[in-house]
Design a protein that fits this description.
2 copies of one chain form a homodimer. Chain A has helices at residues 5-18, 31-38, 42-54, 83-89, 108-113, 161-168, 185-191, and strands at residues 27-28, 58-61, 65-68, 75-79, 94-104, 122-131, 134-143, 173-182, 198-208, 211-220, 225-229. By secondary structure, the first copy, chain A, is an alpha+beta fold. In chain A, strands 5-6-7-10-9-8 form a 6-stranded antiparallel beta sheet. Chain A has a 3-stranded antiparallel beta sheet with strand order 1-3-2. In chain A, a hairpin with a 3-residue loop joins strand 2 and strand 3 (65-68). In chain A, helix 1 (5-18) packs across helix 3 and helix 2 packs across helix 3 (42-54). Chain B binds a DNA duplex through helix 3.
Chain lengths: 230, 230
DNA sequence: TAGTGGTCTAGACCACTCA
DNA sequence: GAGTGGTCTAGACCACTAT
């Protein structure tokens, strides 16, 4: 027995749920009972049960006991796409090219997303990400200068804006939206696609302590797929 | 102090990372030292640190100590899309319509994904999901009859295949792929879209103990967005 | 080999919530 | 009020790995 107990216990319980020994919606034994059954401390049982509950397989209530979740919500953890890694994962060499970088007043939707005043200016950046010098994705990004003024002096032709921001504001939170659009002329030109081609789009907005940092849209070359595991 | 210690400790540490007190890549104090600093048991510190490491903010090594992750991989947990809930979340009434259901030999890619023999037949289902009786998404699904033979007798006009399968094989694993395609004639007709419109596609394959259950493609009506939080 | 995190235990007390 | 999960503790031993 070189196995780890709480892990073994968790897997055993998962098995009992999957096989239906513990049916959907059924009440399972209490922690003390399970502890004697598995021959370990209650703490260990607790740890295993909490992991399963965290996974959406169980629902626990004080006094009410633990039940198998009736409408299991399948969850998946996925790493947010970092273009450089996506490119390198396919075995290609990553590079990027800054098309334009200006200081200007953003359009209304960006103003509201970044919590800016109507006359405020922001840093606007257009970049093409390349895989082995072939277009891979086109990026439009707005950066809130009040939050990150130093980006104006960053060497953005060497390091991508994304990686520079990650190092400057390392643990920001944010949201992500996936969608699909037909390529307009600008996108088509940027990634060498045909006008109207279906493009996979990722929009990301990040902030740090309620101050907005940056918002960006990534337009991927046709055929791009995003994988995830349950 | 009605607060939970391990939670408080975790948040405090997160703060120290975000403010840069613990810099990117830096070694942070050991568990025993932190335990005396925070005035709690090492177990509690351990729990907080493990949570942060699990979150991708820390990297821990025995003997090597704990470091702040240099290239933080932002992760997001998201619930896999259940069409009914997506529809109901927008305040609309969900319904669905089975377009066709047949037993036939799948095309090669499905054969290999479901681990079938070339002559095997599988259950093929085409469904349209409706929001207030307007098309919302079109679904093409293959079901492995060797794994779930009873689906042939399921009342699929009343309960969607997805929900029926969830109740029958509740905790299967699987993978998910997101992409974008241009609508072909069949998709365009099914969801009342224009030919060539960019369509958001979700492909999902699930299995149970290495036996493949089902694989499906979901084609969402134009303008659909999948939202997630970091 | 020594130092760090990984885990388990036994016991204790608290907090919620069902009856 | 009583039963269940939630959490903390102090101590112990193990497992990995940097030096």
């Amino acid at each position: 027995m070189t196995k780890k107990s709480h892990d073994t216990v968790r897997l055993s319980m998962q098995e009992r749920i999957e096989t239906g020994e513990w049916a959907l919606g059924a009440l399972i034994p209490g922690e003390v009972e399970l502890a004697t059954e598995y021959g370990c401390a209650r703490t260990t049982i607790n740890r295993a049960l909490q992991a399963l509950a965290n996974n959406g397989m169980l629902i626990r209530k004080r006094k009410g006991g633990t039940r198998v979740c009736e409408m299991p919500v399948r969850q998946a953890k996925f790493a947010i796409p970092i273009v450089r890694e996506q490119v390198e994962a396919t075995g290609n060499k990553y590079s990027h090219k800054v098309i334009s970088s200006t200081l200007k007043t953003p359009p209304a939707p960006v103003i509201s997303r970044l919590n800016l005043h109507p006359e405020d200016k922001a840093f606007y950046l257009e970049t093409v990400h390349l895989a082995d010098n072939r277009p891979f994705a086109y990026e439009e990004r707005w950066v809130n200068l009040k939050a990150v003024p130093t980006i104006l002096t960053a060497p953005l032709s060497e390091i991508s804006a994304n990686e520079w921001l990650v190092k400057s504001v390392p643990f920001s939170s944010g949201d992500v939206v996936f969608s699909a659009i037909n390529a307009d002329q600008k996108i088509a030109d940027s990634i060498e696609a045909t006008l109207g081609t279906a493009i996979f789009v990722v929009e990301r907005t990040t902030w740090y302590k309620k101050e907005f940092i940056t918002t960006l849209k990534l337009f991927y070359k046709e055929g791009f797929q995003l994988y995830t595991r349950l």
